Amino acid sequence: MRVLAIAAHPDDIEWLCGGTLALCAQRGDEIYIAIATNGNVGSGEPGAKKDEIARIRHEEAKTSAAVIGAKVIWMDFDDEFLFDNRPTRERFIDAIREARPDIMFILSENDYHPDHRLAGSIARDCRIPVSVPLVQTKLSETSIPTTFIMDTIMGKGFEPEFYVDVTSVMEIKEKMLSSHVSQVAWTEHMYSIGFTENMYIQARFRGVQGGSKYGEGF
Questions:
Q1: pLDDT confidence of residue 187
Q2: Residue numbers of the domain that contains 207
Q3: Mean pLDDT over residues 172-185, rounded?
C-alpha cells in the first residue's frame, strides 16, 4: 500500500501522525511525506537567514523521514505565506500524483495555524481533481485516495472518529520529531515547554481516549 501524509511545515507530520506512519512502514507500506512550505521563518536566532533556515529544515526533514524509510516531496512555498491559488493547487495535485497514494492523511481545517488550515483545505479539494485526466499538470492522473484528517496541535477543536494505538512505536515517533533540532530551543522559549514533551502529552491524551497508553486521533 502507498501512504501519503501532507504537511504544512517540516515537523507537522511527526507530531500528528508519525506513529501511524511508523506502523504502516513496519508492515511494508511505501510512505511519502509531502511538505507544503520550506519552514524558512522557523527560527528565533538573531540574524538568521531564511535560505539557511530552509536548508537546515530540509536536512532535518530528510533525517526524520529516513527513520521510517519515507520519501519527502517538497512543494517549497514560503513559510507563513501559503495561499490558495492555481499554482498552489497544481503543486498539491502533483504531490499527490507523484505519491499515487491509496491512503492520504491531511491536516485539519480547524487547526490553530493558517498554513495548517489552508494545507488541509487545499489537499481535501485536490483529492478528486488528481483523478481527472483533463486537469493537466506536470504528472498524469491517479486514483482518488482514501483520506483521513489528522488531529490538531494539542487536540484543540478536534474530536477524533478513529484512534490508532501507537504505543509500540513511540520511540520511533520521538526520534522522528527530535530530528528537528533547530526547533527545540525557540519553541521551548515561546511555549515554556519542549515540543517533544507536548507531543507526548497529546499522545497520552489520545491514548486514554482510544483505550491504549499512547494514541493518535483521526
A1: 75
A2: 2-217
A3: 93
